[in-house]
Amino acid sequence: MPPSELAPTPAQLVDMHRRMARIRHFEEEAGKLVEGGKIPGALHLYVGEEAVAAGVMVHLDVDDQITSTHRGHGHVIAKGGDFKLMYAELFGKATGYCRGKGGSMHISDLDLGILGANGIVAGSVPIAVGAAFANRYRDTDRVTVCFFGDGASNEGAFHEAANMAALYQLPVVFVCENNLYGEFTSQPRHQRVTDIADRAVGYGMPGVIADGMDASAVFGAAGECIARARAGGGPSLLECKTYRFYDHVGVTGMRIPYRDEAEVDEWKGRDPIAALELRLVEEDVLTADAVAAVHQSVVAEIADAIAFAEASPDPDISSLTEDVYSNPIEPGGVR
Amino acid sequence: MTATDLPVTAGRKLPFVQAVPEAIAQCMRDDADVFLAGEDVAVYGSVFGTTRGLLDEFGPSRVLDTPISEIAIIGLATGAAAVGLRPVVDLMFMDFIGCAMDQLMNQLAKMKYMFGGKARLPVTVMTAAGAGTNLAAQHSQSLEAMVCHIPGLKVVMPSNAYDAKGLLTASIRDDDPVIFIVNKFLLGATSDVPVEPYEVPLGLAAVVRPGTDVTVVAHGRMVGEALAAAEALASDGISLEVVDPRTLQPFDLPTVLASVAKTHRALVVQESVRYAGIGAEYAAQIAEEGFDELDAPVARLGAPFSPVPFSPVLEQAYVPDAARIAAEARVLMGT
Ligand SMILES: Cc1ncc(C[n+]2csc(CCOP(=O)(O)OP(=O)(O)O)c2C)c(N)n1
Ligand SMILES: [Mg+2]
């Protein structure tokens, strides 16, 4: 597919910038909290990949759905997730999105069409197909966007789901965030193809590549795929070339080297937020002060959200066995 | 036979996490048909560190990083074994067994029987179970009962570094598929581990602490908890005998019955969900075969019927511990 001609309006640029800044600050603070031992468990940070979530999500409304991954905070934030509920969940508090039961890898908000982060690589891909099926079954024009990684593209679940979506021409967009690594294994060490979008041919759907460090590029490509799906034109596979700035888990991870510092620095030099800000200022969309004000307001909001999370109560032990079923059955109760 | 009949240790201390690669390395030196494959097991040495150093010694043709493709990992082992190799494959978190279930359950486990005994499938599948690490519902399960339920698979779950090396060596040398389950929580635990290769025979329980009042059957991480409970109760004059089956399938009932013949009370402890857990099988076998020896019904302790929660306070309430084992033992003693 040729590069998209679809370009964001100034207002859309500002919107994407705000979403990206929200993700960045959320993740930076979350990274500090987990490295400082204040948040339990494992966080997979999205820093560096913000343009993908933002460039896709500006095209979605609240009724559209997304499925996410273990690296899900950015998707949730860009879709409108609430900082307070997110941080509270990371802390495992009763006030969190999942009442403290899910943590980072399972943050979800069904009211916002967020069908969950996911701890199983590619586990959410078939689910996205199901949601897309329901959207069409009910004659809506809703679209489902499925985020997954380069590593996930090697799972059987991905192939089965992609084929089924194409067969039924479902309104789903498969957004592959190709950050060049699955855990600690580089892409050339886990698959022969360089462009995962090439695989689309095998499923009979369009395959598109976008520069995942450029919000406008993602905007254009995602916009076309989403519009096609919404109009009944079936699924697409959109590959965004991107990079995670931090380790697979946490900020510094286990400090076992598996990628070149020079490579990391080169990608950090292409920081999607800095690049967008340069453009916003150059094109007189925002002043430098206005850009700074965005950051300030996000930082303040985050400080509030963390304070809320820290002050929140732990879940009550009685909640441990709640919510296993919607309709728990009392054995022998009704005859 | 009990643990005291096994080879004397050479007095060297080694953590569990290093006992595992030592066993693999010794088997690989010994037998050119042994190879290792799994996600990030080569360059990174596994996310748990349980394969560290093996790539350096054996090179990339015998130590392979795979794509994130659990179906293909188990299939690789099954097919390679069917034509003569002796594969060791790693499934990382035991939760991911779900992705590989057809190859494991319908292919690997059944091939020999379905083919009228003609296939020999010396496959070792390593995987890590266990809660308590704040990794939530999809990275914390102990699914030993699921694999024990499938005829054709042998299942082992060591509770210490000595057994880990000996059981893994025995598993690799065994001509049948063995699921070798590591508890993540135990990886740092150190014990005396002889330098030379040795086997802890499959199907042989160990009496890890002799006692007279209650037989506690516990495996994996629960062995340490049972020992702590035994220590705590000793001052109150209650003497627990702790028996570690080590191999869960097949289960060494004779060793357990010999213990029950002494104590006349049995408590079966498991970290995993109690309902339909492996403890139910053990309790039933003890009741069937040891009925005349029992002064009280066999008691069971396990996790509640819910997924593993994220919140540390909930997770702590979820996993059985020494205090709860002691409390159950007191109930059995009527004190
Ligand atoms: C089924 C399954 N296999 C393995 C893992 C362990 N794991 C977690 S993240 C990850 C790498 C995923 O790579 P990719 O899809 O490229 O996403 P990225 O982390 O790069 O965003 C792996 C192997 C898992 N969670 N689920
Ligand atoms: Mg990746």
Report what the structure shows.
- The complex is a heterodimer of chains A (335) and B (335).
- Chain A has one domain: Rossmann fold.
- Chain A is built from 11 helices and 7 strands.
- Chain A is globular and about 60 Å long.
- In chain A, a hairpin with a 2-residue loop joins strand 4 (181-182) and strand 5 (185-186).
- The mean pLDDT of chain A is 97.
- In chain A, the strands form 2 sheets. Chain A has a 5-stranded parallel sheet with strand order 1-2-3-7-6, with helices on both faces.
- Chain A has helices spanning 10-35, 50-57, 73-78, 83-90, 125-137, 156-167, 200-203, 215-230, 261-268, 272-282, 288-311; strands at 65-67, 144-149, 172-178, 181-182, 185-186, 207-211, 236-241.
- In chain A, 41% of the residues lie in helices and 9% in strands.
- Chain A is of the alpha/beta class and 335 residues long.
- The longest helix of chain A has 26 residues, at 10-35.
- In chain A, helix 1 crosses helix 2 (50-57), helix 1 (10-35) packs antiparallel against helix 10 (272-282) and helix 1 (10-35) packs across helix 11.
- By secondary structure, chain B is α/β, with parallel strands linked by helices.
- Chain B has 2 domains: 12-192, Thiamin diphosphate (ThDP)-binding fold, Pyr/PP domains (Rossmann fold, 3-Layer(aba) Sandwich), CATH 3.40.50; 206-333, Rossmann fold (3-Layer(aba) Sandwich), CATH 3.40.50.
- Chain B is built from 12 helices and 14 strands.
- In chain B, the strands form 3 sheets. In chain B, strands 3-2-4-5-7-6-12 form a 7-stranded mixed sheet, with helices on both faces. Chain B has a 5-stranded mixed sheet with strand order 9-11-10-13-14, with helices on both faces.
- Chain B starts with 12 loop residues before the first strand and ends with a helix.
- Chain A binds chain B through residues 40-42, 89, 92-93, 98, 100-103, 105-106, 118-123, 151-152, 154-157, 182-185, 189-191, 256, 258, 314-315, 317, 319-321, 324, and chain B through 39-40, 43-45, 47, 65, 67-72, 95-96, 98-99, 133-139, 304-307, 309-314, 317-318.
- Thiamine diphosphate sits between chains A (44, 70-71, 119-121, 149-152, 177, 179, 181-183, 248) and B (39, 68, 70, 92, 96, 99).
